[in-house]
Specification:
ribonucleoprotein; 65 residues; 0% strand
Amino acid sequence: MKIAEIKEMTTSDLVERVEAEVANYNQMVLNHSISPLDNPAQIKQLRRTIARMKTVLRERELNNK
């Protein structure tokens, strides 16, 4: 997911999406520890997407103060 797409989302949608992606990430890491994923680079990509979303949320929080 690109940063432009993330910035277009509303704050409430973004919060829900972060929670869903974190749950997905945790499940993916657990599955990878049991049996290797076909593409382990997905874990890295998902972690960075979560970081981008959290960064946008933090920017919005600081701009509202």
